[in-house]
Amino acid sequence: MKEGNKTKKQLVHELTELRSQNATLKKSITGSISAEFAAEEARRYAESIVETVREPLLILDADLKIISANRNFYRTFKVTPSETIGSFIYNLGNEQWDIPKLRELLEEVLPEKEAFDDFEVAHNFQDIGHKIMLLNARQIYRKDIGAKMILLAIEDITEHKRLENLLTESEERYRRLFETASDGIVLLEKREGKITHANPATEKMLGYTNKESIGNKLQDIGVLLDMGDFQTTMQNLNKSGIINYDDVPVKTKSGQHIDTDIYLVDRARLVQCNIRDITEHKLEEEALSESEARYRSLFENNHAVMLLIDPDNGAIVDANAAACAYYGWSREELERRRIDEINTLTSEEVSAEMQLARAEKRNNFFFKHRRADGTIRDVEVYSGPILLKGKTLLYSIVHDVTNRKQAEERYRSIFENAQEGIFRSTPDGRIIISNQAMATMFGYESPEEMMTVVTDVNRQHYVNPEDRRKLKEMIEEHGLTKGYEAQNSRKDGSIIWISLTMQAVRDEKGQIMYCDGIIEDITNRKQSVERIRKALGATVQAIAVTVETRDPYTAGHQRRVADLACAIATEMNLPIDRIDGIRMAAAIHDLGKISVPTDILSKPTKLTNIEFSLIKTHSQSGYDILKDIDFPWPLAEIIYQHHERMDGSGYPRNLKGDDILMEARIMAVADVVEAIASHRPYRPGLGIDVALEEIEKNRGTFYDNAVADACLRLFREKGFQLKST
Question: How many CA atoms lie within 13 A of 507 on its CB side?
Answer without folding.
Answer: 7
